[in-house]
Amino acid sequence: NAGVTQTPKFQVLKTGQSMTLQCAQDMNHEYMSWYRQDPGMGLRLIHYSVGAGITDQGEVPNGYNVSRSTTEDFPLRLLSAAPSQTSVYFCASSKDLWNTEAFFGQGTRLTVV
Amino acid sequence: EDKVVQSPLSLVVHEGDTVTLNCSYEVTNFRSLLWYKQEKKAPTFLFMLTSSGIEKKSGRLSSILDKKELFSILNITATQTGDSAIYLCAARMDGGSQGNLIFGKGTKLSVKP
Description:
The structure holds 2 protein chains of 2 kinds.
Chain A (H helix, E strand, L loop, with lengths): L3 E4 L2 E4 L5 E7 L5 E8 L3 E10 L2 E4 L6 E3 L9 E3 L8 E8 L8 E2 L3 E5 L1
Parallel strand pairs in A: 2-11
Antiparallel strand pairs in A: 1-3, 3-8, 4-5, 4-9, 5-6, 7-8, 9-10, 9-11
Chain B lengths: L2 E5 L2 E5 L4 E8 L3 E9 L5 E6 L6 E3 L2 E6 L4 E6 L8 E9 L7 E3 L3 E6 L1
Parallel strand pairs in B: 2-11
Antiparallel strand pairs in B: 1-3, 3-8, 4-5, 4-9, 6-7, 7-8, 9-10, 9-11
């Protein structure tokens, strides 16, 4: 029972490089989201999706891109990495938008130098 | 602006103490209040509260919601060192620019032996 799987667990990028953080869930959840967690800031929403083909911006979307071509996968792309994007990134999914819990992946620790 | 505020931001107690963590929220179209525990990695789900005054309990942890006063508390009795973690509170709402799950900044609990 895999749940939400994120890869990679750790990544170091140089400023200006691009990369994709992968997120996959096997629970047939419609709602998926990406958060970043910085010290003292809690979890802040980057982008979210309410179903395949539908995405929307969250609180801190600048510098990130997402797509949702399948129910299972929700990759997060960093277009041109900046040191301000150094953070821990979590992908989450839930069955619906209402009264169900969100399940989290194990996180990706990203450092941009 | 929709927001969730947790207090205190950090807390240090000794084993055996009882602690109360606070979470207040101001969100439109409120649906439910969720509590998570975060140790080294991903947040893990503790409770979801949708109705006022009904206590949810799991072992030494319990939580209650007050929808009139817009807050929730998480109680931990007879604390153990394994309770050391960041406790996150999140309000689930219908729609909004922040997706539909807004997190507080968390309370960092340290339990000393």
